[in-house]
Design brief:
19 helices, globular, 557 residues, single chain, mainly alpha, two-stranded antiparallel ribbon
């Protein structure tokens, strides 16, 4: 899976760089469609914007999308394409759902087939999965442009990058994937539930719908929100091991490709390979022990004398197996997709820790666009520290890193752990002091129950969307509202900070390379960046992980 993704990711990165550079590509015939949207909206895609204007454009259009989808969710039962007669969403659940899909998290405090209509799945959820992914890619394009320019205040046009991201990257990939998935048995219909007789002779109803249209962007856009509540463990959303392979590759290709697109766009491919190498080492440090842990199975079951040669199969699908489930569990948390092909709540304690750590670090590949943007913050910190070590003014790509950039980078780096740990502490306080009112939250007491609450806020802040589903977050106004605010703050403030740094550096005078310039495309610098990531993540999150999955692991001994 990894090697196939890499083989596709490199040429796709070259293509993406050409799209953002305005060079000729095979999909230029889509330009009239883009011009149509520009004409009806009155947008001039050629108007150059500074970093502040780009961020205002991003926030404004995102606000419009939120209002649009919130309204749809609270009135969905009266709208068309509702053959199963699903009811309206409550306001707090609609707020959480609209925000979640808007920010590319797709945290689902509802079950898709019973809480959403076909119209809602398409006009709200699927629509937001396209535009949220386009937003992330557009932000990455602005950052790449800032790194490329020598001295400039104007960094391109958000709407131009956004439109091209949707029409020339996301849409073509989604159409190709949809055809492949339909051929492999994924439903594509507007008919209501079907009635079947099982092998046991029971009569059951099975939800259907336009699943094959929905699932491709779920993965290509690293969204992760399932059409069904069971997500990619559902046999109609992930029918076979082949579709599992295809879906796994499809959700990784853009996070991989964006890193290589950076190298082609800046004409610094060695720098891109350094970034990819650090990300890959971090990924391997998480995925290898996870797969081993899941394949070896639960030692408590082995001690009972029960054959456990298939591995830890609780919460997993037999058609997929423990190894593929462990690989998916880490990849989906590393790249912020959040889709699941097994229940993370049932994975082994150290696997759960690695899933948490993948989201806490939040920069090993990451979601499309924002993965490198999060990594960029650690590069800024590493450059500054390296400069201090050798007694030189820190420089990155010919621009001085000074106090202003370091302050913003520090705030962004600390913002993620602040959101997670502060809200997890509040949830623990509320649960302990109001056990009668909120007692349904936790099906698992002790260490694992704490991990469930910690995971929910980690997933929200990382815009991931997966969960330890033993947590009773539905129906719960507390979780709907608090996670909603974590989703907002975890998405937009880091992007604003990252683009602000890029804008600040772009305005500075370019300094040509000299013998004393810090090389940022070397293995040595890669080790420095990796050390900064590990130190910041370990110092911020290790105590909370010790109270959750690590303590649970030792309790099994």
């Amino acid at each position: 899976m990894f090697m196939v993704t890499l083989i596709i990711g490199v040429p796709l990165g070259r293509y993406i760089a050409r799209v953002y550079a305005g060079e000729k590509t095979v999909l230029d015939f889509l330009a009239p469609l883009e011009q149509f949207f520009y004409r009806i909206s009155g947008i001039d895609p050629n108007k150059e914007m500074n970093w502040k204007e780009n961020m205002v454009a991003m926030l404004t259009i995102n606000l419009v999308w939120f209002i649009f989808c919130f309204v749809i969710l609270v009135v969905q039962q009266w709208l068309p394409l509702n053959p199963d007669k699903n009811p309206n969403m409550l306001p707090d659940q609609a707020f959480n759902t609209a925000i979640s899909f808007l920010v590319n998290c797709d945290l689902q405090h509802y079950s898709g087939e019973s809480a959403a209509t076909y119209f809602t799945q398409l006009a709200c959820m699927m629509f937001l999965m396209f535009v949220s992914a386009g937003t992330g890619l557009a932000a990455a394009a602005i950052l790449m442009n800032a790194l490329k320019l020598r001295t400039a205040t104007e960094l391109g046009n958000f709407y131009n990058y956004f439109m091209k991201s949707c029409t020339r990257i996301l849409l073509p990939l989604s159409i190709i994937l949809a055809v492949v998935l339909m051929i492999n048995g994924m439903p594509m219909t507007f008919h209501a539930k079907d009635t079947i007789t099982t092998l046991q002779g029971d009569t059951v109803t099975v939800s259907r719908g336009p699943v094959a249209a929905f699932v491709p962007i779920k993965h290509v856009g690293t969204n992760g929100g399932g059409y069904y509540g069971a997500n990619s463990t559902h046999p109609l959303e992930n029918p076979s091991y082949l579709t599992n392979f295809i879906l796994m590759v499809s959700q990784c290709i853009l996070p991989f490709a964006i890193v290589f697109a950076l190298g082609f766009y800046l004409k610094k491919q060695k720098f891109a390979w350094m970034v990819f190498g650090v990300m890959t080492i971090g990924f391997l440090c998480l995925v290898i022990p996870t797969v081993i842990s899941e394949v070896h199975g639960n030692p408590a079951i082995i001690k009972m004398g029960i054959d456990n040669h298939l591995g830890a199969m609780e919460g997993k699908e037999v058609r997929l197996g423990a190894a593929a489930s462990g690989y998916w569990a880490i990849m989906t948390t590393v790249i912020s997709t959040g889709s699941v092909n097994c229940m993370h709540d049932s994975t082994m304690p150290l696997s759960g820790m690695n899933e948490l750590w993948a989201m806490m670090v939040n920069c090993f590949y990451g979601g499309k666009g924002v993965g490198f943007m999060n990594f960029y913050i650690f590069i800024i910190i590493a450059v500054f520290m390296s400069g201090l070590m050798v007694g030189r003014t820190p420089e990155f790509h010919g621009k001085k890193i000074e106090a202003k950039e370091m302050k913003i980078a520090s705030i962004v780096a600390l913002w993620h752990p602040l959101l997670i740990l502060a809200f997890a502490a509040v949830a623990c306080f509320v649960y302990v002091h109001h056990p009668v009112r909120y007692g349904y939250w936790l099906n698992n007491p002790g260490y694992h129950g704490f991990s469930e609450m910690l995971y929910e806020y980690t997933s929200s802040s990382a815009n991931n969307g997966s969960g330890f589903e033993g947590l009773g977050d539905t129906p719960s106004k507390f979780w709907n509202i608090t996670c909603g605010f974590v989703l907002i703050f975890g998405r937009y403030l880091p992007i604003i900070g990252q683009i602000a740094i890029a804008g600040s550096l772009a305005e500075k005078k370019f300094i040509p390379e000299s013998a004393g310039t810090l090389k940022t495309d070397t293995i040595t610098f890669g080790v420095m960046v990796f050390a900064v990531i590990v130190i910041i993540a370990a110092l911020s999150f290790f105590p909370s992980l010790s109270l959750g999955p690590i303590a649970e692991y030792f309790s099994m001994k």
